[in-house]
Amino acid sequence: MRQIIQFNAGWSFSKQATEIPAALDSAWEVINLPHTWNAQDGQDGGNDYYRGKGYYAKAFNKADLPQSDRCYVELRGANSSAELYLNGEKLAEHHGGYSTWRVDLTEKLTDTNLLVVVADNAPNDRVYPQMADFTFYGGLYRDVNLICVSESHFDLDYYGGPGIRVTPQLGDTDAKVEIEVYTTNQKDGQAICYTVCDADGNVVAQATDSNTKVVLDIPNVHRWHGRKDPYLYTAKADLTENGEVIDNISTRFGCRTFQIDPENGFILNGEEYPLRGVSRHQDRLGIGNALLPEHHEEDIDLICEVGATTIRLAHYQHDQYFYDLCDQKGLVIWAEIPYISKHMPTGRENTISQMKELITQNYNHPCIVVWGLSNEIGIGGSDEDLLENHRILNDLCHEMDKTRLTTVAAVSMCKMDDPYLQIPDVVSYNHYFGWYGGETDMNGPWFDKFHSTHPNIPIGCSEYGCEALNWHTSDPMQGDYTEEYQSYYHEELIKQFFCRKYMWATHVWNMFDFGADARSEGGENGQNHKGLVTMDRKYKKDSFYAYKAWLSDDPFVHLCGKRYVDRVEEVTKVTVYSNLPEVELFANGVSLGKKTAEDHFFYFDVPNAGETKLEAVAGDCKDESLIRKVDTFNEDYRLKEKGAIINWFDIDMPEGRLSLNDKMSDVLATTKGKLLFMSLVKKMMGGKGKKGKKMEAMGFEIGPEMMSMMGGFTVLRLFTLMGGMMDMNFTKEQLLELNAKLNKIKKPKKK
Fold first, then answer.
1. Which pLDDT band, with edges at 50, 70 and 90, does 703 fall under?
2. Smaller CB count within 10 Å for the chain: N or C?
3. Do 464 and 508 fall into the same domain?
4. Nearest-5° angle of CA 152, CA 73, CA 211?
């Protein structure tokens, strides 16, 4: 009978080791799994976190193991490559840091044993990911188990899979459920007992057969219907010999149909079911990716609270426990491999093996509806090798799984007619109009254009968002990293996206702030702060409640700006979010009136004198906050970037004249500004961009669409980002010299 022993406790760890030890070294650190060596240095900025080898060792006695014929070790996540040694002998290696893999130890076990795993997250040109906006935490960061089985057992060797595959085919009221199992050393006379149980444990179908595939009927099938009704069945398989069970496995599954329609979006069980949700990175502050079950549970609860119906699990395979939670809670999932940002001709085999693992290990989850082939991989355009890689992956997905669709997440600069968009079944784009250039109102029209250009390709938005930290202002503007601008941005995007039902899915980037050690933005280095919730999960930003107002049915009211207390203006704008139809706002107990808002966003002008206690009331729900009149702006609310060459408030801004703090669209609206910008770009490109030549930067052609995007940046922000992309560092003197030139140019008249 199968026995699974958790093998997480009592490991020894070293980053200093250089060879496989013959015995445990007392100088090594004693740790328990899950573990990563980048929990701190992978989140503090500088792009200097340790990327190399980490040695893990654990001693054990054979006599302490259960009596069995075979003994496997199961590693559920070793980032990003790993080698496994038993008693000094190398038994296996694995490349891909986010999936389960197993090694048969049986033949090499002795009375006393030393198991050593060498994990390695060093850069290379073969294993994805290698270039991306998140930290590649090294370590054994998920569970390690021992699995002890009989000589005849359900398969443990094929791409880390569960050994059982369940495929329901639904009729009007009934379902035919194909159950296929994979066996190792199955012998004559051995039989397999197949059982399907409902959510209460009652047997609804059963059969015994020597074949490894059967079809069972479920009458009056109860469908899995997302958040509304995430009903799950359980399929069990017992391998028997002479009436005795010698191995057993089980998996939960759901019975559902879906389609993605280019006009009507996502359809679940024949009903339109809008997919509006978030993306999720798995890491946490001070923990990295070495998560415990309670961390996954808190994440799913927060995502359910915001009212999401879908999650894009980016940019890699997530923990099996989290997929289980998505099944239970009814979240519709986009699952993908880390084929991201930079196509590597030498990495093709790795994309194939990681996709095989993703599908094999996750086939039975009803929550998953699409397999993601890649993310922003066409950032520099698509060559034939990239296209062939995508065709191979797309065909592989359809060969391994005939029940699901494929997708890609394309970057804004990817042209609508790029051939790689013709490969998957559906397409999504990562757009940041209103944050990385452009304006918020460019988002909806862009998707309308794609939809009209490609009416038969379902289109969605796989990433959109902007960064917010504990900075505040009453005059939010793009690039200021304030909580107020993030709220404004998401209000605008919600209103644009949620009314376009042809968009098959929208995913906010991101549900949680996450580690990105190369980042130095917003005054707190080492993180991407686009989350609706902080990286420690302790603070829900105001934008969290904007989505809750649209997506959740649980009544609530939320007063925005709780961290923005000191305000200088005589009358200040106060925003309230609620999913109830009417909100009344009180200031020091005096009603400022009631308001209704079809868009769930309620705006009040509040007199600001002394201290004012605010109370928002909607139905039976209440929320409170405090504002205080001050004479001068509280500098604690203003972004001061660590290591910034120059901050925006250090710049001369003569009235009526341009400056580094003006948007590029205003600069380019003047003849002198346009000439100045073109001369600077030409200099940055080393004299390229002459008449008749295409201007390019980072592989992107600077055409009308790029120019439109750049128009939303301030000059300071654009040149800071362009300098980073082109590996050109501007000095404070150079930026001030440019500002002086801009100060001589009159601002364009507002239309």
1. low
2. C
3. yes
4. 25
State the Cα angle at 201 between 153 and 182, rounded to 5°.
Answer: 20
Last residue of a domain, one of 610, 635, 660: 635
- What does residue 557 show for φ and ψ, rounded to 5 degrees? -140, 140
The three-class DSSP label of residue 167 is strand
Question: Do 550 and 494 meet the contact criterion of CB atoms below 8 Å apart?
Answer: yes
Q: Are residues 321 and 457 in the same domain?
A: yes
Contacts of 62 (CB under 8 A, 6+ apart): 109, 110, 111, 112, 113
Largest CA-CA distance found in the chain, in angstroms, rounded: 94
For residue 311, count CB atoms less than 10 angstroms from its CB and return exposed for 0-12, middle for 13-18, buried for 19 or more.
buried
268 plus 243 within the same structural domain: no
3-state secondary structure 550-567: HHCCCCCEEECCCCCCEE
Q: Distance of CA 521 to CAs 120, 465, 468, 481, 517, Å?
A: 28, 15, 10, 9, 11
Domain assignment present for residue 216? The answer is yes
C-alpha–C-alpha distance, residues 426 and 52, integer Å: 37
Enclosing H/E stretch for 62: none
User: Residue 433's closest CA among 448, 424, 420, 444?
Assistant: 444
Strand 405-411 versus strand 368-375 pairing type: parallel
State how far Cα 660 lies from the chain centre. 34
Confidence of residue 662 (pLDDT cuts 50, 70, 90): confident
Q: Which of 376, 463, 491, 524 is catalytic?
A: 376
What CATH number is attached to the domain comprising 356?
A: 3.20.20.80
What CATH number is given to the structural domain containing 225? Answer: 2.60.40.10
Return the number of other C-beta atoms located less than 10 Å from residue 401's C-beta. Answer: 18
Q: Are 183 and 153 in contact (CB under 8 A)?
A: yes
Where do the DSSP E strands lie in 376-478? 405-411, 426-430, 459-463
Residue whose token pair is 């001070």: 286
Whether residue 491 lies in the annotated active site: no
Range of the domain at 171: 164-253
Instruction: Please tell me whether residues 631 and 707 are part of one structural domain.
Output: no
What token pair was written down for 606?
């509040």
d(C-alpha 520, C-alpha 516), whole Å: 9
3-state secondary structure at position 396? helix
How far are the Cα atoms of 44, 51, 284, 420 from residue 40, in angstroms, in the given order?
Answer: 7, 13, 10, 38
Residue in 71, 249, 91, 238 with CA at minimum distance from that of residue 150? 71
Cα 202 from Cα 196, distance rounded (Å): 8
What 3-state class would DSSP assign to 444?
Answer: helix
Q: pLDDT tens-digit profile of 327-374? A: 999 999 999 999 999 999 999 999 999 999 999 999 999 999 999 999
Q: Which two tokens stand for residue 573?
A: 């704008």
How do 368-375 and 332-336 pair as beta strands? parallel
Residue tagged 């509040």 (tokens)? 606
Instruction: State pLDDT tens for residues 499-535.
Output: 999 999 999 999 999 999 998 888 899 999 999 999 9
The DSSP line for 137-150 is --EE-S-EEEEEE-
- β partners of residue 661: none
For 659-671, b where at least 16 C-beta lie within 10 A, e where not — what string?
bbbbbbbbbbbbe
The C-alpha atoms of residue 585 and residue 389 are separated, in whole angstroms, by 57
Query: Does 625 share its domain with 512?
Result: no
